[in-house]
């Protein structure tokens, strides 16, 4: 079984990165929603601290996912319809760009308040530049806009996977569930 991708199949590394990323991004999204829904200031601060801490722990993993995705060959699409194949490629690219925007804008939004990036009570990354109001506002806008893309992209992604499974009955979904020998 291959660790790396080929033109016929995904390798174990890509499959593991895909599924762990999916769980992590969903977790971070839900933590972000919890932060937005908090009704008291102490609850907001606690939810934000958890979101930031989990995000910082996960950021290296997501960056690895981005690097791996762009450095590996992708298996040839089994989609016969040119427009659906292009849509699938566009959804994947937008997903990766969304993740990149989130992992850049999230830390910048916190750092631009003048605070360090704290990871639970374990350690903190010092703030290199202090409070920068315009950067904080821009970071929040980018972070929230990228997060709003989340559910429509999930719907398109899952819908495409189900189409391949139920309608086309091809190996598209199977290729992302386990690597072939």
UniProtKB/TrEMBL annotation:
Subcellular location, record wording: Cell membrane
Keyword Transmembrane: yes
Spans through the membrane: 12-31, 51-68, 89-110, 149-167
Record keywords: Cell membrane, Electron transport, Heme, Iron, Membrane, Metal-binding, Transmembrane, Transmembrane helix, Transport
Highest taxon, organism lineage: Bacteria
InterPro entries referenced in this protein's UniProt entry, alphabetically: Cyt_b561_bac/Ni-Hgenase (IPR011577), Cytochrome_b561_oxidase (IPR052168), Di-haem_cyt_TM (IPR016174)
Lipid bilayer topology: Multi-pass membrane protein
Predominant localisation class: membrane
Cofactor requirement: heme b
Pfam families: Ni_hydr_CYTB (PF01292)
Domain spans labelled Cytochrome b561 bacterial/Ni-hydrogenase: 10-177
Family assignment from sequence similarity: Belongs to the cytochrome b561 family.
Protein name: Cytochrome b561
UniProt organism field: Phenylobacterium koreense
